[in-house]
Specification:
Layout (H helix, E strand, L loop, with lengths): L6 H27 L9 H18 L5 H6 L1 E5 L7 H18 L3 H12 L6 H6 L1 E5 L1
Antiparallel strand pairs: 1-2
Helix pairs in contact: 2-4
Pfam families: RDD
InterPro entries: Pra-immunoreactive, RDD
Membrane topology: Multi-pass membrane protein
Length: 136
């Protein structure tokens, strides 16, 4: 029986990812601009890098990103195999970012309730990407 990752672990993993990634990207901004700041005018660049990270790294690292690795959870396809680039593009770009923008964030709230109350703990972006998050 597969063990699905709940809302708490997923939230902690996302928090760890954002924190660690912000420090790394902030460091790169410092190297190139002399400022250690991710101001609103640089927010689009940060979001682009973070989205690319969420799309590429799980494919290269068998479903893990830094926060998920720390929390011992991973992203898998619904058939149990490792995610492909098409899964992560649909999941992160379309299911999370694009639909989040179009619905003005309402999809995020709905996804939270889906992860809390659904048996398989899949959110909107998981369904669109054909993925789920499992506990190891």
């Amino acid at each position: 029986m597969e063990s699905y990752a709940g809302f708490g672990k997923r939230l902690i993993a996302r928090f760890l990812d954002v924190t660690i990634f912000s420090i790394l990207i902030g460091g790169l901004f410092y190297i190139f601009t002399g400022e250690y700041s991710i101001a609103l005018n640089k927010g689009l660049i940060w979001d682009l890098f973070y989205t690319l990270y969420l799309i590429v790294i799980p494919v290269l690292w068998a479903g893990y990103i830094i926060g998920k690795r720390i929390c011992n959870i991973k992203l898998k396809r619904t058939d149990g195999d490792n995610v492909k680039l098409s899964n992560t593009i649909l999941r992160e770009f379309v299911g999370f970012h694009l639909i989040g923008i179009v619905t003005l964030g309402i999809s995020l709230v709905v996804s939270i309730f889906m992860v809390i109350f659904r048996e398989d703990k899949r959110a909107i972006h998981d369904i669109i990407g054909g993925t789920y998050v499992s506990e190891n």
